Amino acid sequence: MPDSYDVIIAGAGPAGAQCARDLAERGYEVVVLETEAEGEFPAQSNKSTGGTFASMMTSFGIPDDTVMHATESVVLESPNEHFVQGQPGFVLDYEAFKEFLVEDGRHKGAEYRFDARVRDPIVEDGDLVGIRYNSDQEVSGEIIIDATGPAAPLAKDLGIANLERKNHAIGIEYFFEGVDLDHPDFADLTDAMMLRLDHRYAPGGYSWIFHTGGDRAKVGICHIQNERYREHATQNRTVDGHLEHWLDTDPRFKNARRVADNQVRGSAHVQFPGSMSTDSFMAIGDTVPSVDPIWGQGIYKCMKSARAAAMTADRCLTRKIDTSAEEMTVYDDLWMDQVAPRQDRRLMMMRLLYLASNERYDRLMQDLNKLPRDILSDINDGNMREIVKLLYPSDLSYLWKYWRGT
Ligand SMILES: Cc1cc2nc3c(=O)[nH]c(=O)nc-3n(C[C@H](O)[C@H](O)[C@H](O)COP(=O)(O)OP(=O)(O)OC[C@H]3O[C@@H](n4cnc5c(N)ncnc54)[C@H](O)[C@@H]3O)c2cc1C
Questions:
Q1: DSSP state string for 5-66
Q2: What are the mean pLDDT values of the chain's consecutive 10-residue runs (406 residues total)?
Q3: Is this model's pTM higher than 0.90 or not?
Q4: Residue to substitute in 210, 299, 305 for testing ligand 1 pocket (most ligand atoms within 8 angstroms of CB)
Q5: Which residues line ligand 1 (CB under 6 A)?
Q6: Domain span holding position 349
Q7: 209/320 same-domain check
Q8: 332 and 359 share a domain?
C-alpha cells in the first residue's frame, strides 16, 4: 500500500469534515477523500440549510461568517392557519460552512484529496485494510469511515447500509429576491424560518421559506413518496414541478426573481438505522439515516454523529489498537444515546403527521396556538402523554393507516 493513515474518511460533507477536524485535533493522521474538484467544491453537494441549532454553533466552534442570516422565530403554516414560536435559528451560507470545516480541519493537520471518488473497500484475509478510489488508487488505514451521504459506496459493500427506497426523501431549493415576507394574508416571515404543511404544494412532505435578509429568502420543498404523496401528487409533476406550482400560486412570490445559478437539490433517507459499524468501520452522517424525521434538520445530527465516531476511533486507537466490531459498537451506542435519541418516536410522529389531511393540519395549528411553550417542547421531544392529548377520535383512521403500514 502506498500510503497509510490512522483514519480514512470518504466524503467531505459536514459529517466527514467535522470528523476530520476532531481527529486531527487529537493528533491522529487522517485523510479525507472527496469526489468533487476542489475549485468547484461544494457543487453537486451544495445543499440548503437552516436550523435551530444554536448549541451546534457553540459546541462545534462554527464562526458567524458562515451564517447568512440569524432568525428569531419558527413559523408553522397550514393551508389556512399558522403558529409562531420565538426561537433563534441560523440560515447558513452552506458553501462557506463547508469550506470552513475543510480549512479548519487542514489547519489542525487533516489531509484532503479532492477529485478522489471512493469506489470500494479493500479487504485482505477478512480484514478491512483500506479503500480504492478513482480507477486504481489505494490508501490504507486502521479505521475507515463512510461519510458520503446516501451514496454510501463502502457501507453498501460491507453490508452495513439499510437505506430503503420507500423511505427516500427528495428536496429542492431555490434562492429568491423580491419575496413578500409580510403579506397581509400570511404570518410575518421577517427574520423567520417557515415550514408549511400543505399537500397542494408538498404532497406527503412540507415546503419552506427561510428569510435570509432584506427581501431575499431560500424557498424549497421536500417529500417522501408515501401514501399521501400518491394521493395528492399530480401525475407527471416532478419535485421541481411541485415547487413551480407553489411559486405560481402563492402571492408572496408574485414579484420574486431567482437569484442566478442558485439551486440546491438532494436526498436523504428517513427511517430507523440498522447497524452503523463493523470491524474497523463506521458509517456517519446521512450514510446512516440521520435526518430528523419531522423537520428534516440533518446538519446538527451529522455533526454529532461525526463527533461520536471520532470519540470511538480515539478509544479504539489509544494504547493497544483494537478496531474489532465489538469495540466499534461504542459508536452505535453513542448514536442512539446522543445523536438521535427517541428516533423511533419521531419516526412515528412523522408518519402520522404526513398521513393527516390539510383540514387536520389547520386544526393542529389551532391547537398548538393554545398550548404552553414547555408542552410544545415535550411534544417535539416525543413525549407520548402530550402527543396523545393532541389526538381526536377522528384520528383513528390515521392511526389505523399507520399501524397497517408499519
Ligand atoms: C434540499 C435539501 C435541503 C435541506 N435542508 C436542510 C435544513 O434546512 N437543515 C438541515 O439541518 N439539514 C437540511 N438538509 C439535510 C442536510 O443537508 C444533510 O443532512 C447533510 O448535508 C448531510 O451531511 P453529510 O456530511 O452526511 O452528507 P453530504 O452533505 O451529502 O456530504 C457527502 C459528501 O461526500 C461526497 N461524496 C459522495 N460520494 C462520494 C464518493 N464516492 N467518494 C468521495 N466523496 C463522495 C459528496 O460530494 C459530499 O461532499 C437538507 C438536504 C437537502 C437535500
A1: EEEEEE--SHHHHHHHHHHHHTT--EEEE-SS-TTT-SSTT----EE--HHHHHHTT--GGG
A2: 87 97 98 94 76 88 95 96 93 93 98 98 96 96 96 94 80 95 97 95 92 96 75 75 94 94 79 90 92 82 96 93 94 93 81 87 94 79 79 79 68
A3: yes
A4: 299
A5: 10-16, 33-36, 42, 45, 47-51, 117-118, 147-149, 151, 153, 171-173, 220, 264-266, 268, 285-286, 291, 296-299, 302
A6: 343-405
A7: no
A8: no
